[in-house]
Write a structure and sequence with these properties.
This is HTH domain-containing protein. By secondary structure, the protein is α+β, with helices and mostly antiparallel strands. The protein is built from five helices and 13 strands.
Length: 221
């Protein structure tokens, strides 16, 4: 992409018969994105309609792709179902039961350099929204990157920092953290944070006795 130093790669998975139909609108649009520079590279891959969910399956690459897609979706709080679905089959001859994975007609995987940034289609079960491959490809056609549903949880910060704000629970003013003791220079509120991440007022005996102590705590930040 001309205005983006990051290399965008689109990997399109389709059921084998569809690869024999170059007039397919979605594939043609992706090829146009590739030729016009909306994406840097386009890879077309075929896969069967369904594969057996077992270590003995001859389609291990499909299963590995599915696991990667599902992990990406889990990290964002979305799902690659019902586009991918699992079903159980039983042989009428042997009575053997097998778990099988049914693949979608078309699946799009986007990478920014080596980072997986999108799998389409995917759904947000909480809001009943689905981001389809049609929508993702249409967005690419405009020169923009599709923004997936959901969001990645921030696991880097401390749990208390992620569940509390930096505003005073009494007046909404700014709080200052003085080694675990929070103080508000606007109203004089002083307190701590509980294990559940909630602010708790300090008892009268242990709280600063006057505004000078609050100001000292503020300056010590």
């Amino acid at each position: 992409m001309t205005d983006n130093p990051t290399e965008i790669t689109a990997v399109c998975y389709v059921r084998a018969p569809l690869l024999l139909e170059p007039v397919d609108e979605q594939i043609e649009t992706l090829q146009a994105c590739d030729s016009e520079g909306a994406i840097d590279d386009l890879l077309l891959r075929s896969w069967p309609k369904e594969v057996t969910l077992s270590d003995e399956s001859p389609h291990q690459e499909v299963l590995e792709n599915y696991e990667r897609f599902a992990q990406w979706a889990d990290e964002r709080g979305v799902s690659v179902r019902p586009a991918f679905r699992e079903r159980t089959t039983t042989s009428q001859v042997t009575g053997t039961t097998r778990q099988r994975l049914v693949t979608p007609l078309l699946c799009l995987e986007l990478y920014a350099d080596d980072e997986l940034i999108g799998v389409f289609p995917h759904s947000n079960e909480a809001t009943d929204e689905t981001y389809t491959t049609d929508e993702a490809i249409a967005t690419l056609r405009t020169g923009e990157l599709p923004v997936p549903l959901g969001s990645v949880a921030d696991d880097d910060g401390d749990g208390l920092e992620s569940t509390t704000s930096d505003t005073c629970p009494d007046c909404g003013g700014a709080l200052v953290d003085g080694q675990g003791l929070f103080a508000c220079s606007d109203c004089g509120w002083v307190g701590t944070v509980t294990e559940s991440g909630r602010f708790e007022s300090q008892s009268i005996d242990s709280a600063p006795e006057n505004e000078d102590e609050v100001r000292t705590l503020t300056r010590s930040r």
